[in-house]
Design goal:
Oligomer: heterodimer
Number of helices of chain B: 24
Number of helices of chain A: 4
Number of domains of chain B: 2
CATH class of chain A: Alpha Beta
Mean pLDDT of chain A: 87
Helix content of chain A: 40-55%
Strand content of chain A: 15-25%
Shape of chain A: globular
Order of helices and strands of chain B: HHHHHHHHHHHHHHHHHHHHEEEHHEHEH
CATH architecture of chain A: 2-Layer Sandwich
Distance between the termini of chain A: 21 Å
CATH topology of chain A: GMP Synthetase, Chain A, domain 3
Structural class of chain B: mainly alpha
Shape of chain B: elongated
Low-confidence stretches of chain B: none
Strand order of the largest sheet of chain A: 3-2-1-4
Number of strands of chain A: 4
Structural class of chain A: alpha+beta
CATH class of the largest domain in chain B: Mainly Alpha
CATH topology of the largest domain in chain B: Glycosyltransferase
CATH architecture of the largest domain in chain B: Alpha/alpha barrel
Number of domains of chain A: 1
Low-confidence stretches of chain A: none
Order of helices and strands of chain A: HEEHEHHE
């Protein structure tokens, strides 16, 4: 992921705790899969979170969680969480608190 | 009590119940399948209310916001359709209890997908996440499970199996009728598989008899079969419906029968609904608020959408929620360069005509150059942004006011776009729309022509009543702001 994209995401939402890029999970190889954790997402609909990020770069395919939602995701120990845990690259934040 | 009053009151009750459940599950951080079913039934009821064209714009916004909060919470629980994924294992290896639980879990996921599709149709929800991919990818496992029930003649779970299939049929047809394209072909193939399985079940004499004697299931199945037929372009079934006496049926069943009847025969729906209204009202008000309120509201919405008594708009008594009130008018000086000084400018008739001649794109670009405290790159992107289906305002920017961040949403109306002398009240929905998606948002409505008195009064009233932060920059005031910033040329 380009450096300036990370900066634009950080400018867009307050209190971002984590941004990670992870292995491609879609058939479209151009997609950039990212996971963003920010408690500001509480105030924004799911549809709008995604739309605002895609406006920065249409190839971004984000999963947006509040810290509480991330905890539920982590506790579910689902295959996607394990995929992210094993194949991610941290763009921003201290991943030790998350993985 | 008039039907109109019952309708209004039920909408308020359903919104309250839904918001309470959302809060409860959000605080707990988890949601059960039963709660998911509860929320989804409420969402379907709200969808039916939203189909009524007599709602006022602000009520529509409040209901859509309630819908998106409910939908967001059930969508999170989907967990990549894990209930579909494990369904075969749970049904093939489990005892009767775990089979029943598996059916509840499958139906919860299907209902969630249905309400997401309904929300997508209203541009409240999005489809296409990796979770949604699993709706079609993992559904075959559910069909294997139901096939297993048939092959092993598990008679105790025939009826829940039929319900699973009809629910799938409902969600798939809803998806196929929607404008979303990604899963269209897969959905059609799955619908065909569901239909084949249903036909297989219907060939069994015992099941045939079960369906015949269960009016609620029979009508639900008939409605969904008609929808499936229209997907595949098959001939409609014109069989005469014979409902018979339903007065002895318990309220939930009665309401589900009426909901299906609405789609099959509107005349009979009105006749039965009017005959049963008193007993339904009595029973719903006497019982503990919950599922029956959602089903009752669905029927009331159907009835009211047909009845002439709702020719005029009505105002509901809905709750505004999740709003951080802020004085937008006061803060305009923190958003636009030289806003306060601009009041001293004089505007000639010619200058006003220049403003009125701007197209939407030009007006957007000119105003963007007066905004302060926003990154230039972001402003550039926003002013050239193409109009998308999910766009809620022409410009959406992050601003900081009073040490807090807000999304500043600006709907635009150029003089070219508005043909009447003033901006009509009918644009109010567009002005209020950002409040569906953002809690911390402020709206500045930018218009080259003056707002009509009715529109202005409506905006002011909603600011006071609902705590929405809205300001208007119109006509001469807008021209002054552009002029002082060297943009009126």
């Amino acid at each position: 992921m380009r450096f300036d994209i990370g900066i634009q995401i950080l400018n867009l939402f307050d209190s971002i705790l984590l941004i990670v890029e992870f292995g491609n999970r879609c058939s479209d190889a151009n997609d950039i899969d990212i996971l963003i954790v920010s408690d500001e997402f509480r105030d924004i609909s799911k549809l709008k979170r995604k739309e605002l990020i895609k406006r920065i770069d249409e190839y971004l395919d984000p999963i947006c969680f509040t810290s509480k939602q991330f905890k539920v995701f982590k506790d579910s120990d689902c295959s996607l969480f394990n995929n992210i845990k094993n194949s991610h690259k941290t763009i921003y934040g201290d991943e030790r608190y998350f993985f | 009590m008039e039907t109109k009053d019952i309708f209004s009151e039920q909408v308020t009750i359903v919104q309250e119940l839904l918001l309470r459940k959302i809060k409860e599950t959000d605080q707990r951080g988890s949601i059960t399948n039963i709660e998911s079913r509860y929320i989804n039934e409420a969402l379907v009821a709200i969808d039916k209310v939203l189909r009524c064209d007599f709602l006022q714009p602000h009520d529509r916004i409040l209901l859509e916001k309630t819908y998106r909060c409910g939908s967001d919470i059930v969508h999170e629980r989907l967990n990549f359709f894990s209930n579909y994924y494990y369904s075969y294992a749970e049904i093939a290896r489990g005892d009767l209890n775990s089979q029943q639980t598996a059916f509840i879990k499958i139906n919860a996921d299907t209902a969630t997908m249905l309400t997401i599709i309904l929300g997508f149709n209203r541009q409240i929800c999005d489809i296409g996440s990796s979770t949604d991919d699993n709706f079609v990818e993992r559904m075959p496992r559910v069909l294997w499970a139901i096939q297993y029930v048939y092959k092993k003649s598990l008679e105790e779970v025939y009826t829940p199996s039929i319900y699973v299939l009809v629910n799938l049929e409902q969600a798939l047809t809803e998806y196929i009728f929607s404008s979303h394209q990604t899963y269209k072909e897969k959905a059609k193939k799955l619908l065909s598989d569901v239909e084949s399985l249903l036909s297989l079940f219907e060939q069994n004499a015992k099941i045939k008899e079960n369906i015949k004697s269960n009016l609620q299931l029979n009508l639900f199945l008939t409605v969904q079969k008609l929808r499936t037929n229209s997907v595949f372009g098959n001939k409609k079934n014109n069989e005469q419906l014979s409902i018979g006496d339903i007065s002895h049926v318990r309220t939930e069943g009665k309401l589900r029968i009426l909901s299906s009847l609405f789609y099959l025969d509107k005349k009979q729906f009105i006749q039965y609904f009017e005959a049963e209204l008193a007993s339904l009202t009595d029973d719903t008000y006497r019982s503990r608020p919950g599922l029956n309120n959602f089903l009752f509201l669905q029927c009331l919405s159907h009835y009211c959408s047909l009845d002439e008594l709702f020719n005029n708009t009505i105002e509901l008594n809905l709750k505004s929620f999740g709003i951080n009130k802020i004085d937008v008018q006061y803060n305009l000086k923190n958003i636009f360069s030289k806003y306060e000084e601009s009041h001293k400018e004089n505007i000639s008739r010619d200058e006003l005509n220049i403003l009125l001649g701007y197209s939407d794109e030009i007006l957007r670009a000119k105003l963007a150059d007066t905004i302060i405290g926003v990154d230039k790159g972001v402003l550039e992107r926003e002013k050239k942004k193409p109009h998308g289906a999910f766009e809620i305002a022409d410009m959406e920017l992050k601003v900081r006011l009073n040490q807090e961040s807000y999304f500043l949403c600006m709907p635009f109306k150029s003089g070219v776009e508005i043909k009447s002398s003033t901006v009509p009240e009918s644009v109010s929905y567009q002005i209020f729309r950002p409040f569906i998606h953002f809690d911390k948002t402020i709206v500045v409505f930018i218009t080259a022509k003056r707002c009509s008195q009715n529109l202005m009064n409506y905006i002011k009233r909603m600011e006071d009543k609902l705590g929405w932060g809205i300001a208007v920059l119109e006509n001469e005031e807008l021209a002054k702001l552009l002029k002082i910033n060297g943009q009126l040329n």
